[in-house]
């Protein structure tokens, strides 16, 4: 519903405008009237209307003065001025103030309906933008929802869902999802909307990491059965993009100011209860009960088998035990948190006889692998590299056949030769049989940048050359430079060059033409 306030000092004209507004084919309500700008201002603060229709010239405070005050105080309201032919100079001033629409007296029903139609889309867009921003501030900082936003909402209960795709990205080299557009289309599409009644809504915000989304449901009554069916359908659709998805569902609550507290609870639950490599639905009401369950530890004969393998420097036997252990974890639906603790427990076996300053860095590598691996197979591959390297170090063998500086030159050559392929730091590290953290640290030491920065810079450098000397499309250049997502490529290109691909092409091809003309 559109809420309108009419400010007009002539009572008969004011009544006529109000009556004609109610005769339009719009869902509209006149929430108040005023005879001057001062009275209108007070009622705007009280009723928070969406639209102000005001005469230009009124006693005490004119319509123009009122609009100027509203603009200066950033009060979110659409403004429409009423004027006659003799007020044309005032109308020009109103346009300079940024009024949204203009109505000429005498006002007709069709004119009013046209103006309200024009403003309706702007009002909905502004309301959604303000609500989205307010929800984000409340979720992340605990800020209160402004009253100007609350008055636009009609709901009885709220429900919060934290969606996490794949593992908890507590330590990740990634900063975007390759299927981000498809995910947003799914979450904003008809699948969720069909489970909402008229007047109910869902608002989607970014989470704390690139692979999280927050769904805020404003409903008449939060039906657990409907939410379960919706989540089940979403999980089926998400399998097209990703291996696993975790839905953390809050209990229903009434006040939006509780969003921050509920969100923090869901984040804590996610970090403690996410099942590595498998989809799951976690419910807030079961969180405290689950935390009371006794915690299993890696102990007994299996731990002794691992320890004996380390003492005897038998890497083959150690990796065989590791495979068996990871398979057991998968069958037991191990949480990512506990899996991290157990793997670090294995890591400590290599440092029992010495105080090694590298242990903290090695523990961070475990977090990296868990953050980036989507399956147990991917995790095991990374762990094999790590533990094989530890065995080589324990045997005092060199991890690399060439010097560190020569290795980095080989890495650079590998990047330059394969920049057009889909590649990340894990792929490069596996190719050279070293861990991603060690590679990143070594590359930074000899090149002053990280491997992924070098790869990105080289890709953009090649893209610049394509734009300067060819007529290939942006999509074609993106694909040649290893980017499957054209929009992400354009974003990265502009971050580095300060120009969009189109702007860069126009500028540099024009420069070449000028140089050619100068040589002639």
TrEMBL record:
Residues 409-507 form the HTH araC/xylS-type domain. The keyword Ribosomal protein does not apply. It comes from the Bacteria. The modification 4-aspartylphosphate is found at residue 55. It holds the Pfam family Response_reg. Residues 3-120 form the Response regulatory domain. Keywords: DNA-binding, Phosphoprotein. This is Response regulator. It comes from Faecalicatena faecalis.
